[in-house]
Amino acid sequence: MKITKAVIPAAGLGTRMLPISRAVPKEVLPIVDKPAIAYLVEEAANSGITDVLIITGRNKGAMEDYFDYSPEYEAKLISSGKESWIPGLREICDKVNVTFLRQKETKGLGHAILRARAFTGNEPFCVLYGDDIIFSETPVSKQLIDAYEKYGKAVAGIKEVTPEQILKYSSMDAKLLEGNIYRIDTMIEKPKPEQVYTNFSILGRVLLTPDIYDILENTPLGAGNELQLTDAMKTLSETVGMTGVDFEGKRYDLGSKLGLMMANVERAVVHEEIGEQFREYLKEYVKTL
Fold first, then answer.
1. Which residue, 46, 101, 105, 106, has fewest beta-carbon neighbours within 10 Å?
2. Residues 6 or more apart from 65 whose CB is under 8 A from it?
3. What's the predicted TM-score (pTM) here?
4. What is the biggest distance separating any 2 CA atoms in the chain, rounded to whole angstroms?
5. Cα–Cα distance between 99 and 77 in angstroms, integer?
């Protein structure tokens, strides 16, 4: 079955980004000249996805505005003789259908995914975690779709992390199948040191099959008294089975100030408009450190 749908959970408050997240949703904080959420939607579109559902919360209307036409800007551009800019502003709006759904209560990632059931129906779908931006040659969602088409199972995007990080993330019982593809037999969220299977953890991307919904509805609340998606995927991996892809790409935690700044710097040095000047500035600036 061709995968055409993706879900982006983006209802969190972004407390790690305070104080700016009091006024600006963390998902629209800029990476150079585009909001962070745009990179996720573009990844989905470049992976063959045609329909994206963004799970939002209160005070996040700016996200909806971005994925719409902007008549006031277009009128200004026309009057300034800059009509050629308009297709670029409309590109993401025309490339993929983006819809929004409120998660009225933030009860965990698993609860957010349950809200998408009517949207995805009986189809497999990609999930792009709202805090994780990944720059790669081949879109990570496409890497997961390719694995699903070959193995027919739900897929997790995995990377090895440090022993310190694994205690804060999830740990996969992952066994190599071929190349960068693994069989996932089980997993655990935020393991104690003696519970770590491997240093492979899910980082920001999964491809789920419809089985996940019934599992979520029967999964007890977990860490933080919330419905944890990892707990449901543990059941999925132990019953139906899951595949892991040690994906190509570099991930940035956009829920953290350091991650946001790293992504900005690394995008700015290759930006077609400012890249050359920014590289020269950066070379001179680092001499003063």
1. 105
2. none
3. 0.92
4. 66
5. 27
Nearest to 237 by CA among 217, 204, 215, 205: 215
Alpha carbons 67 and 69: distance in angstroms, whole number? 7
Distance CA 35, CA 37 (A): 5
Q: Are strands 132-135 and 250-253 parallel, antiparallel or unpaired?
A: antiparallel
CB atoms within 10 A of CB 91: 11
Q: And the tokens for 283?
A: 């070379």
d(CA 3, CA 69): 27
How remote is the C-alpha of 25 from its chain's centroid? Answer: 15
Give strand ranges (E) for 150-199: 154-160, 170-178, 181-189
Q: Output phi, psi for 143, to 5 deg.
A: -60, -40
Q: Which residues contact 197 (CB under 8 A, 6 or more apart)?
A: 171, 172, 173, 174, 186, 187, 188, 191
Burial class (CB in 10 A: 0-12, 13-18, 19+), 50: middle
Report strand pairing: 5-9 vs 51-56. parallel
What's the pLDDT tens digit per position in 95-114?
A: 899 999 988 777 889 999 99
pLDDT digits (tens, 9 = 90+) for 38-74: 999 999 999 999 999 999 987 778 888 888 888 787 7
